[in-house]
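WARN no homologs supplied; continuing
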Amino acid sequence: MRGCLVFLAVLGLLSGCSHYGLPPPNASHGHLTLAMEAYLRHKGSYPYLLEVENFGEPFPRLPQTVAPALELDAGQAALVHAEVVQTLKGRPTEGEVVRALEDLRAACDAGHEPACTYLEKEFQAPQRGEYPLRYPKVEKLPGGVEFAVVVLQCQVAADGRMQGCEVIEDGTRGFSRSFIEQLSAHPFRPATLAGHRFASTYMFAVTCSRGGNYKYKLPLDQKLGWARLRVSRFPESSSAWTNLSKQLALHEPQAPEYPAVFERAYSLAPRARWVATEHAWRQVQAGQYAAALWAIRPALHDSTQREHPNPYVLETAAAAHFGLRQCPEALAAQRQAVDELPGEWPAPERERFKRRLQEYEATCGVSAR
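OK structure emitted
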């Protein structure tokens, strides 16, 4: 008996989180951010979380692997948003719709909330029809574990036809070919922005394990070994590099390879929320505050973060603002970070967040006089 889990998205990432417990006192910043992401994602279903595995998770809807075409400040963002809305009220060409999506994302990154809200309401990712998929036989790993990962990046035309698939990762011989044939045989619902259809990049990812149990726990040596095997076999896969980065952040944050692995993941997926946050945190530690503030923007304005923002994203933004002596912004972000920390979160972390806020208040208070 074999089973697979399938996750679909626009330029998504296969990073892999299952449930894991509250972080230990000596957890790395990357570990803490991951733990909080998983806590927020599963709150209400599971009180705590276990650990990152080599399995799939639902993808964010907006592209992650490329930077916006524009870099805007707040004033420019408002103007760009207004122009885009006006364009989309007419009869734009497909190229104009694609540019409108890029401009809206840039305006949202710049912190213009109406642009973020417009995107959340008016953008629809391409969707596959409701039909079953057949799954080839899963490869067998050492120790008798059956496991496979396949990642495909395809184009979905404005008329819903899927074409031009690129194999990012292939689980075993013939695995990707089977899925490409099946996906190409049925039309998709194409991506739309304010009701206008346009061609888009579509990421298809499937993870399979014996019995379909994606919570199957690999031993640590197999877990890290599998993550390293993926990047060696598929060196251009952002999914594989992000997964290895997360594994190291959790289990071997002091590993000599971690900085290089992480920077490779960031170069391939600068908009992935965890990757962007950790990169920005590392820049804060290096005193590169303006660069950190730019790097954190995709994570800070991610639509999934609005109702329950990750305090570690807010803490990173606050530190970048404070380094630039932007006191109002630093204080607002750190106060929100303190407020958003769960009551059951480790006490040393809650105390550390409060101390940081007190430091900001004291310094900013002196500066304001």
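Residues 114 and 283 are 29 Å apart (CA to CA).
OK
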